[in-house]
Give the backbone structure.
Amino acid sequence: MEHCKEYRTNLALRPDGDTAELSQHAATCPECAKAAKRAAAFDTVVQSAVMPMVPDDLTARLLALVPGLAQPMVRSKRWLRQRRAFFAISALLSVIGVAVLIYGLYILGSYVGVSEIWHTQ
């Protein structure tokens, strides 16, 4: 009976920390073996409850439940290429625009006489 108290106390405190002596006691005592099986089953239930299984399409199904909410847009590869091309052309035109602005200021400066000040220094 003393071994049963010790076994069940250790089982409650550390379910995976059985010593060889306590394992031998569980093999000979049907009540302690039953308690060990219940503890193992309880641990399995708790571990499965902690990590729920979530379906892959859960987000889409939840969004479908909200009335008036648009579905997320799926963009094609063509759209992505067009977007990249748009940004590349925009960057190029910006650089050309800045160059033309600087050249225009240089020409304007030469008409006003500012270029003579730049060249004398």
In short: The radius of gyration is 39 Å. The chain has two domains: 2-51, 78-121. The CA atoms of residues 6 and 38 lie 17 Å apart. Helices lie at 2-13, 20-28, 30-50, 58-65, 77-112, 114-120.
